[in-house]
Amino acid sequence: MNYSPSSALIVVDVQNDFADPEGSLYVDGGEATIPFINEQITMAAQAGSTIVYTRDWHPESTPHFAKDGGIWPVHCVGDTWGSEFHPDLIIGETEVKKGTSGEDGYSGFTVRDPETGSESSTGLEALLRDAGITDVVVLGLATDYCVKETALDAVRLGFSTTLLADGIRSVNLSEGDGDRAIADMAAAGVVVV
Ligand code: VGL
Ligand code: ZN
Known about the structure:
By secondary structure, the protein is of the alpha/beta class.
């Protein structure tokens, strides 16, 4: 990757519940992405790029969870072990939390009110615009949900968007979801490396 001061690396949801085999929504091979992700973080930092970490950050009850009408096991409840970054990840200062008020949605850019459906910004777009970012690089967990929606929003918002395939893993609720997600991103204009 050619990182520069006008590029941003978006590290999606490398949290214990996704990346640790003991996590409640463990993504197969999640922890195996971390050495690669750390290399990218190091290169991006050396080049003066912006590095942003997104975090799934749910209340104890949210329509996102199966017990409350959604589809997912309870995961990434704010301020619990599961919502912490994986301990092997090189972390930084800039993070964006998603779903803090019980909103739904997978993208690092936008969340949705589960009752009204209205969308609101997480602040990520403004953060990137303020930093003069034109290019974003996306990796992390999980390919078929938060990585995909984050990359699709980035393209929609006009950022040149690259997906690093060595730095992602899929939930694969249905077989092939990860591959389909990569194809959808590529069709939308994401450059898959
Ligand atoms: C995610 C499922 C539920 C993700 C978040 O980070 O990809 N997946 N919540
Ligand atoms: Zn979630």
